Amino acid sequence: MKSQIKRTFSNFFFEYETPRQVLVRNKRVAVVCRIIQMGVLAYIIGWVFMYEKGYQIVDIAISSIFTKMKGVSFTNISEKERIWDAADYVFPEQGDSSFVVMTNYIATVGQKQDKCPELPDGKNKCTSDAHCDEGKYKRMGNGHMTGRCINDTSTCEIYSWCPVEDDRKIPDPPVLLTAENYTLFIKNSITFRQFNVVRSNLVESVNQSYINTCLYHPKTDPLCPIFRLGDIVERSGFSFSEIARVGGAIGVLIDWDCNLDLSIRHCKPKYEFYGLYGTGKNEDKEEKPSLGYNFRYAKYYVENGVEKRTLMKVFGVRIDIIVHGRAGKFDIIPTLTAIGSGVGIFGVATVVCDMLLLYLVSKRDFYKNMKFKHTEIGEEVKREMGEDSEEGKIV
Length: 395
Known about the structure:
There is one protein chain. This protein is α+β, with helices and mostly antiparallel strands. It folds into two domains: 1-54 and 331-385, no CATH class; 60-109 and 184-330, atp-gated p2x4 ion channel domain (atp-gated p2x4 ion channel fold). It is 29% helix and 34% strand. The chain is built from nine helices and 15 strands. The chain has helices spanning 2-14, 27-51, 86-89, 208-213, 229-235, 240-246, 332-360, 364-371, 379-394; strands at residues 56-60, 62-70, 73-77, 80-84, 90-91, 98-117, 144-150, 155-162, 183-192, 197-200, 226-228, 248-259, 269-277, 294-303, 306-330. Strand 14 and strand 15 form a beta hairpin. Helix 2 packs antiparallel against helix 7 and helix 7 crosses helix 8. The longest helix has 29 residues, at 332-360. The relative contact order is 0.17. It is a multi-pass membrane protein. It catalyses: Ca(2+)(in) = Ca(2+)(out). ATP-gated nonselective transmembrane cation channel permeable to potassium, sodium and with relatively high calcium permeability. Furthermore, CTP functions as a weak affinity agonist for P2RX1. Receptor for ATP that acts as a ligand-gated ion channel. One of its GO terms (molecular function) is extracellularly ATP-gated monoatomic cation channel activity.
C-alpha cells in the first residue's frame, strides 16, 4: 500500500501528460477546418481589432453645452407692427442645451379676473343652471363655475381670466415663418477624465474669422458650429412650414468618436439631426391626436389699478442637444484579453471537425480507433496489484 501511494505521488510530480494528436488525411474535413479557422481569424482581425478596436481601453465623455440664437422677425397683425428678437422668441433664457424657439402663437390680450361665459367649443355645454355646479371646476373648463348657465352661448358662467382664450384656430401660415432663417450657435466642450483630454467643437481649424462667415453643411462645412434653424428641421425629416405651425421637437446629436492612438487633432465632432416629435399621420392615415408642441406663458401689467395680462399660447420648435462622447487608447490588458478570446474561438474548428470524423464520415469507426486508445489491465498487472495488497495485509 505504501509503495502504491509513493508511486502515485511520484507520477504526479515527475510525469508530464500531453494530448495525443492524430494526423487525418481527409480533404473535405481539412477544407472545412481551414474555412472555419479563416473565418475566426477574419472575425478577430476585422471585427474585434479593426472595427471594435478591442485593443483599446475606453472612456466616456463628460460634456457641457452653451447655445445662442440669433435672428429677427417682423410682424404686422391688425396694423400693429412689431419686431421679434431672441429675447422674445427663445424659452427659457439662452444658454441651455434644451430650449424652444417660438414660430407661431395665439395671443389673448387684456385678460383680467372676472366672470364670463365658457368658450362655446362644445366641451362645456349647458341647458340649465343645474348643469353648472357652483364652485366646481370641470376638467375641460377654464375656471370655477358660478352656477349660472348663459343662454347666449349655452355654456356655464365661470370665474376666471376673462375673456377666455380661444385657441380653436391656429394661425396658418405661422406668424413667425421667417424663423427658418434664425441661426443657432453651439459651443460644446468635453472631457475624457481617464486620458486627461479636453476638447471643444471649436477645433483647430475653426477660428473667429471662419465662424463669422460659415454656416453648417455636412459636406462643405461639417465643423461649422452655426446652424440655420430651417436646415436643422429639414435634415431631421420634418417640413419646416408644418412644424412651425403646430410645433415639434428636434434632437441634435453631437457625436465624438476619438481614437487617441492618433493625433488629438483627429478628435472631431460629427453632427446628426433627428425628429423626436412633430406632425404627421398614424398608420391608418388619420391625423394624430395632440399634434405638435405648445405651452402658455403670460405677461402681466396693471391698467387703471386693475391687474391684467396678455396670455400667449406658444407653438415652437423644441431643440434638445445631446452629446455622445467615446474615446479609446491602446492598453495591454484589453489586447491580451482579445487575443485570448480569439485563441479560444479557434477551438470551434477542432470540435466541428471531430464531429464530422467521429459521426458523419463513412470511416468513422476507423477514426474512432485512431483517436481513442483503449487499454485493459493485464494478468501481470493484476498480479502485481494483488501482491501489493497482500503486503499491506502482512504489514
